[in-house]
Amino acid sequence: IKGQTSLNRFFSKQ
Amino acid sequence: MFEAKMLQSSVLKKIIESLKDLFSDANFDCSSSGITLQDMDSSHVALCYLKLRSDEEGFEDYRCDRNITLGVNLVLMSKILKCAGNDDVITLRAEDEPNILTFIFDSKNGERVSKYDIKLMEIDSELLGIPDTEYSCVVKMPSHEFQRICSNLSQLGDSVTVDCHKEGVDFKVAGEQGSGAIKLKQNTTVDKEEDQVSVELNEAVTQSFALKFLCAFTKATSLSDTVSLSLTQDTPIVVEYPIAQHGYLRFYLAPKIEE
């Protein structure tokens, strides 16, 4: 089963 | 003072219609260079980024003396925009420290002028820095084709696997009750550019994404004849709709990754 990732994992807070 | 006069209200109507279901409240950041909007959905899986450049032809007049942020409920904005005719010229206006955003709709024949004010909101949104990277693969295709693929495959499952390779791009779904696959071949010989399917490939990519979000993004289909999908393995996909004479609307979607 593939898990949904979150955007916070790829992009940092500005 | 901020004042932006857009020649076609239909463009703004389409933008807001395509956003309002996933992104209910959003900040419009206005500066002399134009209007941008970045917002994430409540689960932090999808993000939209809108750019409307002030120097493009879609704006008849554009003035922004001071950088301002307009926090707007997009559902309310969509209701207001439904009051505008598709051919109306639309003016957005706000003061330097605004509490309200004013919409003025001028009919083409000049016989009807409507004015609506909405209250602005304080929206505490988390801005993400999106690196400007080169993607392993960029697929360009007719936007209605992408909409059809997402709609067809969502009948059978929740996730689509996008497989980009040098011959084209494959979209596959595998659900409990069945599976489906759509193969799009690269085709850059058709007459009209907007009907072409092109694949720029540095490296092959195979990645899964939630169809629920991709289907939501395709609400922007009427904004543009074409859409581009930019992919790199194990990073978010970018779905970009160019907006003629204005800029673009991009959606980012985090991938599904085997943990």
Q: DSSP helix count of chain A?
A: 0
- For the termini of chain B, the CA-CA separation is 50 Å
Helix count from the secondary structure assignment of chain B: 4
How would you sum up the global shape of chain B? globular
Question: What do the pLDDT scores of chain A average to?
Answer: 89
User: How large is the share of residues in beta strands of chain B?
Assistant: over 45%
Instruction: For the record, give the distance between the C-alpha atoms at the N and C termini of chain A, rounded to a whole number.
Output: 32 Å
Largest sheet of chain A: none
C-alpha-based Rg of chain A, rounded = 10 Å
Q: Can you give the helix content of chain A as a percent range?
A: under 10%
Structural class designation of chain B:
mainly beta
Radius of gyration of chain B: 19 Å
Residue ranges of chain A: pLDDT <50 for 5 or more in a row? none
Please tally the β strands of chain A and state the result. Answer: 2
Describe this structure in words.
The complex is a heterodimer of chains A (14) and B (259). Chain A is mainly β and 14 residues long. In chain A, 0% of the residues lie in helices and 29% in strands. The mean pLDDT of chain A is 89. The longest helix of chain B is centred in the N-terminal third of the chain and has 11 residues, at 9-19. In chain B, the strands form 3 sheets. Chain B has a 9-stranded antiparallel β-sheet. In chain B, strands 5-1-7-8-9 form a 5-stranded antiparallel β-sheet, covered by helices on one side. Chain B is mostly beta strands and 259 residues long. In chain B, strand 17 (226-231) and strand 18 (237-243) form a beta hairpin. Chain B has helices spanning 9-19, 74-81, 143-153, 211-217; strands at residues 2-6, 25-31, 34-40, 46-53, 59-64, 68-73, 89-94, 100-106, 113-119, 128-129, 137-142, 159-165, 168-174, 179-185, 198-201, 205-210, 226-231, 237-243, 247-253, 256-257. Chain B is built from 4 helices and 20 strands. The radius of gyration of chain B is 19 Å and the shape is globular. At the A-B interface, strand 1 and strand 2 of A face strand 10 and strand 20 of B.
